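Q: My labmate handed me this sequence with no annotations at all. I'd like to see what the chain might look like in three dimensions before we decide whether it's worth expressing. Could you predict it?
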Amino acid sequence: MKKSTKMLVALLAGFSFVVSPAFPAPQGEKDMPEEVRKDKPEQRKQNEKKTMERNKDGREKKARDKDEVKREKARDKEGKKPNKDRRKAQKKQDRERETEQKQRDKEDRESSNRPDKERKDRKDRKREDGKVRSQQKE
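A: Here is what I predict for the chain of 138 residues:
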């Protein structure tokens, strides 16, 4: 080690002894100063209020959930099953959309075939013209 780092380490070691207290840090409520102990009961009350509010909200949510479950059971007993009906309707719509899309695709293919033939004819003509021109140049 360099001389400067040794001095720095020694300085820090000596400084740490000066900074550290002679008595250990408080670890429990008994070791805490009175001011801090007095604040604890108020804080406990506030914490209890918060937990009560949370619990209250939780109970209300559970009650709502139970009511919803009861309603769903009643609907099922009546023979109305909204989820199944929705699924069936959705499947029908999907099938209709698919058939419409297939028809559109088919029409697009048919209509796009015509211009393709015309394009091919044009390309063939250009090739022939190019051949004729190249022969004329020679």
